[in-house]
């Protein structure tokens, strides 16, 4: 039986995604209060795996996950695409005209920026959508509402004041399944790597990307993060649509290393659409 962690409390999108992805597997669940706590649980071997959000089609990359991968030196063994619908949720006695403040996790707030601005709502942040809903239930404050899922509204007996409040009706979040140790016994169609240039010079990223282009390797994701050593120095997350074992990938890695850049493979995996 695998021990799997995700962002709680009960009713988060992470919980929904985890239960759908692992539904055919024997699993013991563990909930944590923040994405960093979830990743740290894997690093400390409190659990075998975790599932965390890394990217949203509206709000973009989720940096707390990206930085956590760096901090804890973890491996990606799968990614999954999950459809997200966000709703304005209040107490049963609340009316939408009463609301002046919305509460949620930062990525959910970012997915609803236009809606929030159009209503001139104030914003407060929590560690998860479900934690926001739980606060609404326990505080019984009628002028505040959570931005969260229909599932969590049902879970806590709350009222949906307005449905589908995200800025785009087509809203997907990408989650990754993370473990401490790399695995090779899974289907591999994509590879995530971290490239740290040996020095900064004009066009360093372009020179790296040209290597993939010349080998006809398509890239599906690029993210730059500070090295933490000197202002203006960066390392790059690059996801390719090629398995680690492909000859073209082997060649690309060797060429990049020949230029003196550090290459760290975070995982090779396949995408699941939930």
Question: What are the key terms here?
Answer:
D-Maltodextrin-Binding Protein, domain 2, alpha/beta, 274 residues, 5-stranded mixed sheet, 3 domains, ACT_dom, Alpha-Beta Plaits, 9 helices, 7-stranded mixed sheet
Proportion of helical residues: 25-40%
The radius of gyration is 20 Å
The total beta strand count reads 16
CATH superfamily of the largest domain: Periplasmic binding protein-like II
Describe the structure.
By secondary structure, the protein is α/β, with parallel strands linked by helices. The protein has helices at about 15-20, 35-45, 65-70, 105-110, 115-120, 130-140, 150-155, 205-215, 245-260; strands spanning about 1-5, 25-30, 50-55, 60, 75-85, 85-90, 100-105, 120-125, 145-150, 160, 170-180, 190-195, 220-225, 235-240, 260-270, 270-274. The strands form three sheets. Strands 1, 2, 3, 4, 5, 11 and 16 form a seven-stranded mixed β-sheet that branches. α2 packs parallel to α3. The longest helix has 12 residues, at about 245-260. The radius of gyration is 20 Å and the shape is globular. Pathway: Amino-acid biosynthesis; L-phenylalanine biosynthesis; phenylpyruvate from prephenate: step 1/1.
Give the SSE map.
Layout: E1 2-7, H1 13-21, E2 27-32, H2 35-43, E3 49-56, E4 60-61, H3 63-72, E5 75-83, E6 87-90, E7 101-104, H4 106-110, H5 113-118, E8 122-125, H6 129-139, E9 144-148, H7 150-155, E10 159-162, E11 172-179, E12 190-196, H8 204-214, E13 219-226, E14 234-240, H9 247-258, E15 262-269, E16 271-273
């Amino acid at each position: 039986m695998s021990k799997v962690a995700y962002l709680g409390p009960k009713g988060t999108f992470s919980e929904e995604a985890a239960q759908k992805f692992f539904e055919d597997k024997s699993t013991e669940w563990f909930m944590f209060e923040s994405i960093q706590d979830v990743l740290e649980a894997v690093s400390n071997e409190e659990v075998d795996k975790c599932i965390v959000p890394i990217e949203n089609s509206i709000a973009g990359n989720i940096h707390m996950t990206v930085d956590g991968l760096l901090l804890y030196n973890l491996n990606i063994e799968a990614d999954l695409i999950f459809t997200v619908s966000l709703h304005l949720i209040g107490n049963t006695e609340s009316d939408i005209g009463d609301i002046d403040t919305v509460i949620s996790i930062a990525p959910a707030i970012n997915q609803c920026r236009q809606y929030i601005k159009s209503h001139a709502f104030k914003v407060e942040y929590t560690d998860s959508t479900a934690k926001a809903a739980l606060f609404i239930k326990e505080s019984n404050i009628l002028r505040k509402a959570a931005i969260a899922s229909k599932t969590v509204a049902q879970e806590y007996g709350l009222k949906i004041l307005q449905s589908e409040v995200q800025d785009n009706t087509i809203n997907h979040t990408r989650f990754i399944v993370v473990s401490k140790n790399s695995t090779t016994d899974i289907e591999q169609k994509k590879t995530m790597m971290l490239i740290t240039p040996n020095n900064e010079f004009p066009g360093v990223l372009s020179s790296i990307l040209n290597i993939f282009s010349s080998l006809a390797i398509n890239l599906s994701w690029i993210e730059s993060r500070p090295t933490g050593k000197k202002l203006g120095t960066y390392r790059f997350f690059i996801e390719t649509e090629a398995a680690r074992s492909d000859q073209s990938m082997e060649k690309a890695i060797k060429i990049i290393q020949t230029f003196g850049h550090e290459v760290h493979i975070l995982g090779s995996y396949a995408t699941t659409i939930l």
